[in-house]
């Protein structure tokens, strides 16, 4: 099967094609036939012979190649090269030159730019020469490190990072090694390759098609894999790698049409459009501001339109008008605006993008929703600004730009239609149909109602699936209402209650306003409306205060009642909020009998005493109850002995020093010594137990961690737990990793997880959580001791001031003993088990779910470095011999 067939006088030996593809040279035994066909004609005519070149009997010709459109070179036996220049108008061919190589020519081929002839010698040498002058001046390109001919060779110009063009020869051996100037790019895996001005493209034995940029080589002196950025075998995420059919080979590449041809093992040819070629062409068009070509390529090949903006965002925003003028079609502009441009796609795989001679690194990417929204709105605003001067022809695009914002600006789009409806109703109906297509019709109908334009709302409703019996009576009823009442009804229907309240305020219906505020809880909006009207403001404030009481917001309710001078109500609200100062203030301002105020104060003091706010309770007892004795007892209860002694002396009750103050000091002494004795007992009990557990863990870690019984087990029997077929280490359970998990193992439910959490919190003796529980318990003990340090200091000072030196010494000695016990064991308690840490660091920890995760957390906590609370000692008095 062929597109056209051409008859030759004898069997063809070799065939070559010119740069344009419209001339074909066929080599026969003693002549060359040059054929030409017009590929631009429709339909394409058959090729016609334009001339025949006789090559005589000067030696057999092995190969021919085209350079450009008119230069034809032949490789003869004996390493002779003969060049011909075609003269198609005259129907003849002019012999141009002869060239002889001393190295032995293996093959000739054309440079990738089709302007030079290249020679490969048997010694691995590659030479090239330009055909612009005579005689040919061959220059060496490179020498490959072997002496056998290559299966395929190509020469290309590589643009380095420093913008210096270098010539690179690519070669493929029969063993699948791909070379670049003697450096290996692919070892034993390349099956075919081709070059373009921008890419090296090759297929691999792993059935992958790879694209390598040859316009951004970093290090010219070392052309290796890293220099050429050869992509990994990842066709799912990298545009430079694509999976192909097994055994496919490259035939040719057509960069201008973003396509390449593959020959399949069955012999058929298939044309594909790889994403890398398409994107390379799109980026090139964008760089040259040819947005129409880039847009059509994206549209034809289903490339996300993001790339038109994301490739060079600043350039695009500065040339939105150029984009619109080039695209022209309203439908195409809409297609771009309607594209989901909230995400950035097609990561640029070049290390730098050369635009107008400058390198612009595209490294920033937008990920968060706020950045995406900003990007969309920025693009839409840029189009709206550019479309203002083109409104006569691009009204549809203006509406699309409004609707495509995040969130959609439906009101602005509807206002454009509303203005147009006054003069061009037909055009307005088409635009309504378009905007209804872009967004939800019901939402659009509500937005049109919100503009208070009933005619526009009717146009939108007619484009929806709504039953006319639903919206026509409603719109007719609205049409009959006065303007303010109509606006109130619309806003109330749409749930815009604060705006509806403003329209009620314009109508001046006080009773209706009050009911509407209570119904919709619009107290804040009503307060703002009536901020300059004292009477209505107080009414709303009273309603708001009642609402706050219902919501148990007693503090703000009390403030509102106090603002209204309703002191009794404010007193009750403040008392419910626990604000004793505000409560007593309002009680003093309200007409309440003094006896009732005193009862209230005593009740408040009792509440504060129960809440352990002893200082404020004493203040109330003293100032409102005139009860010096009870106030002093409260201060002593809070270890405020200095304040208690000052109060009894200033009030002339020195007799309370012995009956109340001394008794308070004794009570504090008893409580403190009992507390310190409990702390000492806890340390003496828990530290040895912790030491015992860690000793068992060192002796038999498997039994400690897994809970296996201490029985005699043969050496050849695995001790791995039954839910794991392999036990890589004794600490697998604590890293959350097992090699093979039994398929019958089920996930723990949330109920089991809570049960396991409770077990962990209890730290039952003998359980896996006991060690962690003991460590945490001692840590909490240290915090409690630190918390009582200030109170004990006040107790010691009070005892010494009341001439109880021996008792003060006893408290200080008990505290010192506990502190010394803590200091002596803290390093041991909070130490780190280094063996478990090393084992855990060797495996990446993955937390399990359910109760297994709780089990995993316990040893992980144990393996973390201990960080005990700081130990604070009592500031000793020198009067006690410290």
Automatic annotation (TrEMBL):
Return the Polar residues bias intervals.
Answer: 735-747
Which InterPro entries does the record associate with it?
A-sol_ELP1, Beta-prop_ELP1_2nd, Elp1, HB_ELP1, TPR_ELP1
- Location of the ELP1 alpha-solenoid domain: 275-478
> Do you know which SUPFAM superfamilies this protein is assigned to?
Putative isomerase YbhE
Gene Ontology molecular function terms on file: tRNA binding
From the record, give the transmembrane residue ranges. Answer: none
Tell me which PANTHER family the record gives: ELONGATOR COMPLEX PROTEIN 1 (PTHR12747:SF0)
Q: What is this protein called?
A: Elongator complex protein 1
Q: Which organism does this record belong to?
A: Trichoglossum hirsutum
Q: What is the lineage of its organism?
A: Eukaryota, Fungi, Dikarya, Ascomycota, Pezizomycotina
């Amino acid at each position: 099967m062929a597109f056209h067939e051409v008859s030759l006088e004898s069997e063809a030996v070799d065939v070559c094609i010119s740069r344009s593809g419209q001339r074909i040279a066929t080599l026969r035994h003693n002549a060359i036939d040059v054929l030409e066909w017009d590929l631009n004609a429709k339909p394409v005519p058959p090729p016609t012979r334009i001339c025949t070149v006789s090559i005589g009997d000067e030696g057999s010709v092995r190969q021919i190649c085209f350079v450009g459109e008119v230069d034809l070179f032949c490789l003869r036996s004996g390493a002779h090269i003969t060049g011909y220049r075609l003269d198609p108008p005259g129907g003849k061919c002019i012999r141009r030159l002869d060239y002889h190589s001393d190295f032995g020519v293996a093959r000739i081929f054309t440079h990738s730019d089709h302007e030079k002839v290249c020679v490969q010698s048997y010694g691995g040498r590659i030479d090239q020469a330009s055909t612009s002058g005579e005689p040919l001046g061959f220059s060496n390109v490179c020498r490959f490190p072997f002496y056998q001919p290559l299966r395929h060779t190509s020469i290309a110009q590589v643009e380095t990072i420093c913008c210096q063009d270098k010539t690179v020869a690519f070669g493929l051996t029969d063993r699948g090694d791909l070379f670049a100037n003697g450096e290996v790019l692919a070892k034993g895996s390349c099956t075919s390759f081709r070059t373009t001005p921008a890419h090296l493209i090759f297929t691999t034995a792993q059935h992958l098609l790879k694209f390598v940029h040859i316009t951004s080589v970093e290090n010219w002196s070392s052309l290796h894999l890293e220099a050429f950025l050869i992509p990994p075998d990842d066709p799912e995420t990298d545009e430079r790698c694509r999976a192909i059919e097994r055994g496919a080979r490259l035939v040719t590449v057509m960069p201008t049409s973003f396509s390449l041809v593959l020959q399949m093992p069955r012999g058929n040819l298939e044309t594909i459009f790889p994403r890398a070629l398409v994107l390379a062409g799109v980026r090139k068009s964008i760089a040259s501001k040819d947005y129409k070509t880039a847009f059509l390529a994206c549209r034809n090949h289903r490339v996300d339109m993001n790339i038109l903006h994301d490739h060079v965002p600043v350039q695009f925003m500065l040339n939105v008008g150029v984009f619109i003028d080039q695209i022209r079609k309203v439908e195409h502009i809409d297609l771009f605006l309607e594209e989901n441009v909230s995400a950035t796609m097609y990561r640029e795989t070049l290390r730098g993008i050369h635009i107008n001679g400058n390198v612009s690194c595209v490294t920033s990417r937008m990920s968060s929703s706020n950045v995406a929204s900003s990007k969309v709105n920025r693009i839409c605003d840029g189009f709206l600004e550019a479309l203002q001067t083109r409104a006569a022809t691009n009204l549809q695009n203006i509406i699309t730009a409004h609707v495509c914002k995040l969130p959609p600006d439906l009101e602005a789009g509807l206002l454009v239609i509303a203005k147009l409806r006054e003069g061009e109703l037909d055009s307005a109906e088409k635009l309504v149909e378009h905007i209804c297509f872009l967004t939800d019709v019901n939402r659009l109908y509500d937005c049109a109602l919100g503009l208070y334009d009933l005619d526009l709302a009717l146009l939108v409703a007619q484009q929806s699936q709504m039953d006319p019996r639903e919206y026509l009576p409603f719109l007719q009823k609205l049409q009959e209402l006065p303007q303010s009442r109509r606006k109130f009804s619309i806003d109330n229907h749409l749930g815009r209650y604060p705006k509806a309240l403003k329209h009620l305020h314009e109508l001046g219906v006080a009773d209706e306003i009050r009911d509407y505020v209570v119904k919709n809880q619009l107290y804040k909006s009503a307060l703002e409306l009536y901020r300059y009207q004292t009477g209505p403001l107080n009414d709303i404030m009273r309603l708001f205060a009642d609402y706050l009481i219902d919501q148990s917001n007693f503090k703000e309710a009390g403030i509102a009642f106090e603002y209204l001078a309703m002191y009794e109500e404010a007193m009750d609200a403040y008392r419910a909020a626990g604000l004793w100062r505000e409560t007593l203030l309002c009680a003093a301002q309200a007409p309440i009998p003094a006896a009732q105020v005193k009862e209230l104060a005593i009740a408040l003091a009792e509440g504060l005493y129960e809440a352990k706010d002893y200082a404020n309770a004493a203040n109330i007892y003293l100032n409102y109850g005139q009860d010096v004795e009870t106030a002093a007892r409260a201060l002593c209860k809070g270890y405020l002995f200095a304040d208690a002694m000052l109060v009894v002396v200033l009030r002339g009750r020195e007799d309370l020093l012995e009956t109340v103050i001394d008794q308070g000091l004794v009570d504090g002494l008893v409580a403190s010594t009992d507390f310190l004795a409990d702390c000492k007992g806890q340390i003496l009990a828990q530290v040895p137990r912790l030491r015992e557990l860690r000793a068992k863990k060192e002796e038999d870690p498997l039994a400690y961690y897994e809970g296996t019984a201490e029985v005699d087990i043969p050496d050849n029997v695995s001790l791995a737990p039954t839910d794991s077929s392999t036990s890589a280490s004794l600490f697998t359970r604590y890293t959350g990793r097992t090699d093979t998990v039994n398929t019958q193992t089920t996930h723990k439910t949330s109920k089991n997880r809570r049960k396991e959490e409770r077990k962990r919190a209890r730290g039952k003796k003998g359980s896996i959580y006991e060690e962690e529980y003991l460590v945490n318990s001692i840590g909490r003990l240290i915090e409690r001791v630190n918390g009582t340090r200030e109170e004990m200091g006040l107790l010691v000072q009070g005892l010494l001031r009341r001439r109880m030196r021996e008792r003060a010494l006893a408290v200080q000695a008990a505290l010192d003993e506990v502190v010394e016990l803590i200091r002596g064991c803290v390093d041991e308690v909070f130490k780190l088990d280094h063996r478990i840490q090393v084992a855990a660091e060797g495996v990446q920890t993955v937390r399990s779910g359910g109760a297994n995760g709780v089990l995993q957390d316990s040893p992980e906590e144990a393996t973390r470095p201990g960080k005990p609370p700081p130990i604070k000692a009592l500031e000793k008095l020198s009067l006690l011999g410290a």
